[in-house]
Amino acid sequence: MVAENIDPLLESLARVVRLHRRAAGLSQEELAHNIGRSMRYISLIESRRHQPSLDTLKRLSDGLELTLSQLIIEVEEDAKQHALTKGN
Length: 88
Prior knowledge:
The protein has 5 helices and no strands. It is mainly alpha-helical. The chain has one domain: lambda repressor-like DNA-binding domains (434 Repressor (Amino-terminal Domain)). The two termini are 22 Å apart.
């Protein structure tokens, strides 16, 4: 099986969005509805298959009750943490 070559920031974004969505008690469908996107779109972000636009990042942060800068900081921190655990 060939390992996927996925951007570490996309991996981190997926983890952070999923973590906050679940902590807020939201389904993918509820979050999608709240930010004007489809459930499939949220699923693609959480499965690291789609790189969202800046507009979508802002909508996600609002939907998760975070500031855009908080979302980005958490993604960066997650990426650093996982790079350390992978030995990168």
